[in-house]
Automatic annotation (TrEMBL):
Similarity remark: Belongs to the short-chain dehydrogenases/reductases (SDR) family.
Domain named Ketoreductase: residues: 5-198
SUPFAM superfamilies referenced in this protein's UniProt entry, alphabetically: NAD(P)-binding Rossmann-fold domains
Domain of life: Bacteria
Full protein name: SDR family oxidoreductase
Signal sequence annotation: none
């Protein structure tokens, strides 16, 4: 499905990114395996995981190169795309998978924790996508595949930084899809459910959260890769501006925010009439304090 394609994957040394890289290579793509090799909270660096992924791809007869740059650095992000073009002559798909977690309840979240997560997830997706855009425009084709999360789409506890970044990525993807459609470029999002090194850092403060984490342990990272490879392929040429989710053997398509209720008053609204008339009318349609685990509460098969 990806014969002759060149795919750049960020955070591809471990977990979801590694499985994506292995499958894309198996499907015929040449792969740029980007991974800074930092800890789950973004500290340090280690080239080992990316090198191991590349070695495994080459041992299986595939083509791959290592890139150890930080996606949070615009120059580093540009080097990922440059490595693809220099080594393989082109770039056909970008997978913005790199991420970190610094979970804190809102009133304890520092500016540093906020900035670090935004830099890697949202700024990282922007930086790598921006670097690939001129090549996509020139060749009249290309696929951006961004990783969002149900923490942003639905909500989660103690993840204001991560949730904001992940919902921001949805807005970024949508804007790219709209702006680049005339150039034949598409942009989509995936919200993955899978047990990974990063997810393992999430604390469980009660029995419900502990059960949710146990459920996540049954969801292997390799389940995400087929949808990514499909979106990188020509078979997905008609698919853009969508939000998918993968949960073990289930694939979901998410809706986007659209108006659900309206109420009109010819004379306009006052503070009092909003309280007396609009509130009772709108109240049944208000969103609750749902978290991702409340919406996806059943066991995956």
């Amino acid at each position: 499905m990806l014969e002759g394609k060149v795919v750049a994957i960020t955070g591809a040394g471990r977990g979801i990114g590694r499985d994506i890289a292995l499958l894309c290579a198996k499907e015929g793509a040449a792969v740029v395996v980007n991974d800074l090799g930092g800890s789950a909270d973004g500290e340090g660096s280690d080239a080992g995981p990316a090198e191991e992924t590349v070695n495994d791809i080459r041992s299986a007869g595939g083509k791959a190169v290592v890139n150890g740059a930080s996606v949070a650095d615009p120059a580093g992000a540009a080097s990922i795309v440059e490595d693809a073009v220099r080594n393989f002559g082109r770039i056909d798909a970008v997978v913005n998978n790199a991420g970190i977690l610094r979970d804190r309840i809102w009133h304890k979240m520092s500016h540093e924790d906020w900035q670090a997560v935004i830099d890697v997830h949202l700024h990282g997706a922007f930086n790598v996508s921006k670097a690939a855009t001129p090549y996509f425009r020139d060749q009249g084709a290309g696929s951006f595949i961004h990783f969002t999360s149900t923490s942003g789409l639905i909500g989660n506890f103690g993840q204001a930084n991560y949730s904001a970044a992940k919902l921001g990525i949805v807005g970024l993807s949508q804007s790219i899809a709209l702006d680049m459609a005339r150039a034949g470029v598409r942009s989509n999002c995936i919200a993955p459910f899978a047990w990974s090194r990063m997810v393992a850092t999430i604390p469980a403060s009660n029995e419900v959260e502990a059960l949710r984490l146990e459920r996540l342990k049954t969801m292997s990272t390799d389940k995400i890769a087929p949808l990514v490879a499909f979106l990188a392929s020509d078979a997905s040429a008609e698919v853009t501006n969508q939000i998918f989710s993968v949960r073990k053997n289930e694939i979901f398509l998410f809706s986007k925010p659209r108006p659900i209720r309206s109420m009109h008053r010819a004379e306009g609204w006052t503070v009092e009439s909003i309280a007396s008339d609009l509130l009772p009318a709108f109240r049944p349609s208000f969103s609750g304090l749902d978290r991702s685990g409340d919406i996806f509460g059943w066991d995956p098969i």
